[in-house]
Protein 1
Amino acid sequence: MKDIQNIVILTGAGVSAESGVATFRGPDGLWEGHRVEDVATPEAFARDPALVQNFYDERRAKLKTVEPNAAHQALARLDEQWPGDLLLVTQNVDDLHDRAGSERLLHMHGELNSAWCRLCDGRSPFDGRMAADPACPRCDHHGYLRPDIVWFGEMPYQMERIERALAQCDLFVSIGTSGAVYPAAGFVQTARYRGARTLEMNLDPSEGSFHFHESRMGRAGGLVPAWVEEVLRDI
Ligand code: OAD
C-alpha cells in the first residue's frame, strides 16, 4: 500500500445487509416485495404517490431499528486515519455510514432522511412520514415534498466530484454492490483506465467482476475490517 495515496470506495446495499437492511435485488428479484419500477421511478410517483410515499416512509422508519455494522465502522476508521485523499461514495440511501462516523462521504442516490420540495426546490433533513403530507420546512407549503432519492431516469448527485476523485485515485474499492446500475457500475472502468488498482469485495461476483484486478468474496462484515487493517498497517 506504500504507493497508494488517493482512495475511492463505492458501497452498495451489501454493506448494510448484515445490519438488517434489505438489498435491492433479492432472490425473488423484488425490493421488499415491490418491482423497482413501481416504487423507484418518477412515473411511479406520478401514478401512485401514496404507494411510493408509504414505501419510503416504511424504509425511513426501519432505519431507527438498525445499527451500523463492522464494515461501516471499519470504513469510518479508515476515513479518520487515512492521511491521503479518500472519498466514500455510497449508493445507499440509509444513514449507516453517517452514523458510523464517515465524513468524507457522498450519497450519490440521495438519502431517506432528506426531503426535497418540488415547489421551492429546497432540501431539508426529514425523519417523519411524508404520506401524512407535512409542510415543507423551508417554504411551509403542503403537497410538494418527495423523498430526496434518485430514481431511475434521474441524474445521480455530485457526478463531477465523483469523476474528479476517480480520475485521481490510485485505488478503487467496490463493496457490496451487484454492479447492475449505471453510472456506479462503470466507476471501476473509469478508475482502471486512469491507472488505479481495483478491488472488489462482495458476497458473490458482481456483474462487472472481471474488470477488477482482485476480487474477495464473502460477507462485508468480515472482509472489510480485515482489509482496513491491512491498509492501515502499511501507512
Ligand atoms: P443490489 O441489491 O443490486 O446488490 C447488493 C449486492 O450485495 C449483491 O451483489 C449481493 O450479493 C451483495 N451482498 C449481499 N449481502 C452481502 C454481505 N453481507 N456482504 C457483502 N456483499 C453482500 O444493491 P446495489 O448494487 O446497491 O438505486 O444496487 C444499486 C442501486 O440499485 C441502488 O442504489 C438502488 C437500486 O435500484 C436507486 O435507488 C437509484
Protein 2
Amino acid sequence: MSAELVSKPSAHQVLQTVFGYESFRNQQEAVIEQILGGGDALVLMPTGGGKSLCFQVPALLMPGTAIVISPLIALMQDQVMALRQFGIKSAFINSSLSTEEVAQVESDLINSDLDLLYVAPERLMMPRMLSLLSQTKISLFAIDEAHCVSQWGHDFRPEYIQLSVLHERFPAVPRIALTATADETTRAEIIQRLALDQAQVFNDGFDRPNIQYRINENQGNARDHLLRFILNEHEGDTGIVYCLSRKRVDQIAQWLEAKGLKALPYHAGMSNELRQHHQERFLREEGVIIVATIAFGMGIDKPDVRFVAHLNLPKSIEGYYQETGRAGRDGLPANTWMSYGLQDVIMLRQIQQGSAGSENYKRIEGHKLDAMLGLCEIISCRRQALLRYFGDEMEEPCGNCDNCLNPPETWDATQAAQKAISCVHRTGQRFGVKYLVDVLLGKDDERIMQFDHHKVSTFGIGTELDAKEWSTLYRQLIASGYLKVDFERHGSIRLTEAARPILKGEQKLTLRKMLKSNKSKLRKSRSFSATANNDLWEALREHRMTLAEEQGVPAYVIFHDATLAEMTERQPQTLEQLSKITGVGERKLEAYGESFLAVILSHSTSEKLVDKSETVAETIDFLAQKLSPEEIAGRRNLTLSTIYKHLSLGIVAGKVSLADAIRLEEDEIKVIRFAFEQNDDGKLKSVYEALDGEYDYGVLGCVRASLGN
Ligand code: ADP
Ligand code: ZN
C-alpha cells in the first residue's frame, strides 16, 4: 500500500475530527460505504435522523465536489453556514446571489476548491450549469428531499422529474437520494423517476421517538387550552403554532403576544420583508413562537424547536407528520399538540371539493383526510398508527403519546366492526365507504340493485347506528389497519390480514367514544431548563448567543442545545475533555473551546457551593418563615435550582428537614428513595429519568442529601 493510501482518513476519523461525533447512527455507515464504493443509494431516514452526514462524509473523502440538490434556498444557506462552522469548503448557488458572487462560486468549482456545492434543481438544469459541471470533477450527486419527484406527494416539484438527466449525463458518478417522508408508492416513484433501480435502499423507518404526540378534541376553548399548554410546559421555548387561515394566524399571534409570549405571525398575506424578518427572528432569537399557516416550515431545519401545535386539522397524515416533524430535530424531548373539531373537517372538505383537481385527485385527497381523522379518533397508540400508515410496523405501544399515557373513554365496537368488515368482504372489496354504509343501512339504491348487493347477508343489518357513526367506524378501522384504502383502484376499501381475527370473533375491538370529556393528566415533558445546573446552562446559552450575534448566524450553528446540555452535565475542565463532548469537532474546539471552558470554569458547581454559608443561612431563614422554595427564589431573585442547592446543604448539615424542604407526600418520598437505591450510580440524571421526569432535579437533590441521615 502506498503511503498516500495509508494516510487517507477513514469515514470514522472524519466523523470524529471534523464533526466531533463519537459514532455513526443507524445506517449512516452502510450508506457511506455504498457511496464510497461507487454505488447509488436511496436513503429513508426520519427527520433529524442524520441524513446529511450520509453525503457530507463521502464528499470529504472523495476527490472532487459533491453536488447537493436541495429544493429550498433557506435550507441551502443554513446547511452551508453550518458546514463552514465545521471548517468545510462549501457554497451554494441560487437566485439570492449577485452576479459577482455566482462568478466566484463558479471559479471555485472549476478549480476544485469546493467539497460541497448546493444548488436548486431548476438552476442545475440550466445549460450553463450543466456545461460547468461537465468541466468539473464531481464526487457524487445528493438529491435531498427526493419525495419531491412524486406527483401524488404534497411537495411535488416539477423540476425534480428532470433530475434523471444526471444519470444519463454522468453515469459514473454515484447518486444518493434522501427523504424522510416516503410511503411505498412514493418510494417506487422515486426509484423509477430518478432511474435508481440499481440503488441500494436503506430504510431506517420513520419513527421519531423523542416526539410526544397529543391530539385533543376541540371543545370550544382551543385557544385557552393552547395557552395553558405553552405556559405549563413550554415557557421560554421555541415553538410553532399552525393555523388554517391567515386571519386566524393574525388573531392567535396577537393574542399570545398580549399574554406576554414572544409570538410572531407568518403567512403569505404579509409583505416579503416582514415575513423574512419574522423567520430570521425565529431562527436567531431564543424562545420565539411562530404562528403560521402551513406555508411556514419547509426548509427550516432549526434543531431546537421544542413544540409544534396545530389549532386546526392538517389535510393529511403526511402533512401532519411533516409539520410535527419540525419539532425536536436535535433528538431531545419535544411535544406536539393538536386541537381538532368538526368545523375543521367541514372546512377541509369544502376546500378539497372546491379545488381545481381532477375527480381522481379529489378522491385521493378525501381518503387522506379520512386517514388523518382516523388518527384523531383511535384509542390505541398514535405512533403505531402513524408508522403503520407509512408502512412501518412497531411491535409495542410507544408509551409516549396521549393515548398511551392517558387512555381515552371507549365502547365495545366488536359486533359493529364485524358487520362493517363483513360488508366489505361480501361486496367484493371494490367499494368506498359511502356505498358500504348504504348497504349496511339497507338503502333502496339503484347501484346496489345493479350489483345485486341487496341480496348479500349484510344488507340492512346495521340500523343500530346512523350513517355518520358507520363512517366514523370505517375511518377508525382504516386508521387502525383492519381495512385499507386502495388508491390505485379508485379508493376501494379492502381487508387486511388484521381483519380476519375480528371477523372470526377471535379478537375484541374497543374504540374511542365520539365525544369524550378531556381531562388531561399527562405528564409534563422534560424541558431544558430542568438540567442539573441551571446557572451554568443559562450562562452557556448566553455566551453562545453573543458569539452567534457577532457572526450573524443562528445560535444552534455555534453549538446545539444537546452539546450545551452535555457541557452542563459533564463540566469539562480542559480542552481535551471538552473535545470529547458530542458536537465539538476540531474546528469548533479551536474557535470556541477556550471561551466556553472559561464559562464552565467560572460556574463550576463545586466551587460555587464552597463558602456559601451566609446565603444558605438566609434561604433557611426564609424556609422557617414558611415560604416555599419558589417563593424564596422569587423573593431573593435567585433561581429555583440555587434555592434547592441551599436546602440540600441545609439537609446535610441537619438544619433543615426533608419534609420542610420539598413538601411531598411520604409515599412519594419513598418512591424517590427507592429510585435512588435502584440507580446507585449517584447521578441525579439516572434517577430523574427513572422517575419519568416527574420530579425536579432540585427536589431529587434534597432527597439525595437526606439519604445519609
Ligand atoms: P436530517 O437531515 O435527517 O433531518 P440532519 O442530517 O440534519 O438530519 O441531522 C440531525 C442532527 O443530528 C444534526 O444536528 C446532526 O449534526 C446530528 N447528527 C447526525 N449524525 C450524527 C451522529 N452520528 N452523531 C451525533 N449527531 C449526529
Ligand atoms: Zn403511543
